[in-house]
Structure to design on (435 residues):
C-alpha cells in the first residue's frame, strides 16, 4: 500500500516530495506559484519530514491571510491613520525585500500618485493608505514619521497586547466591555481624539454622558446607571491610556485626563461606608427579620439564621483564632483590661476544653434560656472561682455567653441565683439582656 498524505506525491525517480499550489486569495502576498520540497527517498523518511514542513506551510498561508485581512481593513473607511500608515509601511517593506532600489521606490511612488488627481506634489482624494504609501516610498520611514495615536488606536493596542483578544482563552466579555467603554467615550467626545489632545473637559463630558445613560436590562432597568458602574468604566479608560503611553513611547509628562476623575459628590454624612455597601441587607431589615425568625422558627432554623448573619463569621473567627488559653476581661480593681494568664486558664487542657465547648455549643446558653440567639465567644465557670466555684476543668461546670455579657459578669461580680439543679447549677442571668 502506497503512502497517502495530503500534498505528498512520489516522483518518477521513486522519491517523495511535498507539492502544494499557493491559494489564490493570498497570491498577492505569496509571489511564488507553489510550495515544493523533497521529503525523502523512502516512505519512512517522508513520514518523518512531512509534519514539520506541512506545519511551516500552514503558518505561511495563515500569516498571508492575516496580512490580506489587515490590508483590507486598513483600506476601509473606518481605518485610522495609524493603521493606514502601518499597511503602507508593509508595502514598502515588501518592495525592499524584493530588491527594490531607491530609484525603483521613487518610480513606484510616482506611478501610484499618477492614478489620482494631484495638487502640487500631493495626490488629491487618495485613500489614507495610498497617501501614506506614496510619502513613505518617496521619503522613507526616517523622514516620514507615523501619525500620533488616537484613543481608538489605544483601544486596539490594549485589546491585542494586554487583553490578548486573539487568544481563544480570552473571555469575550472582558474585551467586549473595554470596547464598549472606549467607543462610548469616543461617541461622547464626538470624534476619535488624539491621546495628546484629550482634555480634562473632554473627560468630564464623557463622565456626564455615562451618568445620563439609562439601564435597558437587568436589575434597576429604566433607571440611571449607578455612579459605581461609571467609576469602573472610567478606570478602564484610564488603564487604556496608561498602557498606550508606555507602548507608544509617549512622554511621561503627558497627563491622563481620566485619572482620579470624581464621579459623584455626596453631602457630608449622607454617604455609605464600604462595609455598609457590602452588607446584603440594611441593619434595620436584619433586626426585624431576626426577631420574626426567632419568634416563629424551630431551634434548628434559628441556628442556621445565626450562622448566616454578617457578624457571625467575625465572631467565630475571634474565638477560633484565639489560640492561647488566656481570656481578656475587664479588671474590677483597676477598671482596665487584665489578662487571665493564671491557672487553670494558662494550661493546654483548658484550651482544648474551651475549644471543644465552643464547638459543641456555639450559642450563648444563658441567652438561649431567655429565647435569644447570641454568639458564644468565651467559656467560663458557672460560679466564679473567687466565690467558691470549683476550679477543676469539668465540662459540666462550664457555660458560654457573649463577650459583652462575660465582661459585665466579671466586672460586677454578679452572684448566682439560688436555684440549683441536682447535678448542674442553673444558668445565671445574662447581663446583656437585663433591663
Amino acid at each position: 500500500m502506497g503512502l497517502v498524505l495530503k500534498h505528498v506525491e512520489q516522483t518518477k525517480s521513486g522519491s517523495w516530495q511535498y507539492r502544494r499550489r499557493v491559494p489564490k486569495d493570498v497570491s498577492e502576498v505569496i509571489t511564488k506559484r507553489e510550495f515544493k520540497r523533497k521529503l525523502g527517498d523512502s516512505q519512512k523518511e517522508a513520514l518523518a519530514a512531512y509534519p514539520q514542513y506541512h506545519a511551516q506551510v500552514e503558518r505561511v498561508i495563515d500569516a498571508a491571510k492575516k496580512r490580506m485581512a489587515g490590508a483590507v481593513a486598513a483600506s476601509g473607511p473606518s481605518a485610522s491613520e495609524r493603521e493606514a500608515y502601518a499597511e503602507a509601511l508593509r508595502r514598502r517593506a515588501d518592495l525592499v525585500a524584493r530588491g527594490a532600489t531607491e530609484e525603483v521606490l521613487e518610480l513606484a511612488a510616482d506611478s501610484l500618485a499618477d492614478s489620482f488627481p494631484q495638487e502640487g506634489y500631493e495626490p488629491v482624494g487618495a485613500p489614507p493608505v495610498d497617501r501614506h504609501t506614496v510619502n513613505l516610498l518617496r521619503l522613507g520611514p526616517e523622514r516620514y514619521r507615523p501619525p500620533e495615536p488616537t484613543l481608538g488606536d489605544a483601544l486596539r493596542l490594549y485589546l491585542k497586547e494586554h487583553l490578548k483578544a486573539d487568544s481563544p482563552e480570552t473571555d469575550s466579555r472582558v474585551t467586549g466591555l473595554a470596547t464598549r467603554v472606549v467607543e462610548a467615550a469616543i461617541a461622547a467626545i464626538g470624534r476619535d481624539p488624539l491621546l495628546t489632545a484629550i482634555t480634562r473637559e473632554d473627560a468630564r463630558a464623557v463622565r456626564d454622558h455615562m451618568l445620563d445613560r439609562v439601564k435597558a436590562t437587568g436589575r434597576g432597568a429604566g433607571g440611571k446607571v449607578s455612579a459605581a458602574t461609571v467609576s469602573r468604566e472610567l478606570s478602564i479608560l484610564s488603564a487604556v491610556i496608561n498602557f498606550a503611553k508606555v507602548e507608544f513611547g509617549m512622554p511621561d509628562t503627558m497627563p491622563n485626563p481620566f485619572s482620579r476623575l470624581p464621579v459623584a459628590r455626596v453631602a457630608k454624612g449622607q454617604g455609605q461606608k464600604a462595609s455598609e455597601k457590602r452588607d446584603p441587607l440594611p441593619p434595620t431589615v436584619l433586626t426585624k427579620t431576626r426577631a420574626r425568625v426567632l419568634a416563629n422558627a424551630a431551634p434548628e432554623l434559628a441556628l442556621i439564621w445565626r450562622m448566616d448573619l454578617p457578624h457571625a463569621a467575625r465572631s467565630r473567627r475571634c474565638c477560633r483564632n484565639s489560640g492561647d488559653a488566656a481570656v481578656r476581661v475587664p479588671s474590677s480593681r483597676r477598671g482596665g483590661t487584665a489578662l487571665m494568664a493564671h491557672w487553670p486558664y494558662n494550661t493546654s487542657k483548658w484550651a482544648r476544653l474551651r475549644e471543644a465547648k465552643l464547638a459543641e455549643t456555639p450559642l450563648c446558653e444563658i441567652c438561649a434560656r431567655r429565647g435569644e440567639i447570641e454568639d458564644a465567644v468565651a467559656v467560663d465557670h458557672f460560679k466564679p472561682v473567687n466565690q467558691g466555684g470549683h476550679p477543676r476543668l469539668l465540662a459540666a461546670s462550664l457555660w458560654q455567653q457573649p463577650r459583652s455579657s462575660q465582661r459585665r459578669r466579671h466586672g460586677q461580680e454578679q452572684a448566682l441565683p439560688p436555684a440549683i439543679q441536682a447535678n448542674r447549677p442553673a444558668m445565671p442571668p445574662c447581663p446583656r439582656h437585663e433591663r
Residues 310-340, 393-397, 409-435 have pLDDT under 50 and may be disordered. The longest strand covers residues 34-40. The chain has four domains: 8-72, 76-139, 151-264, 283-433.
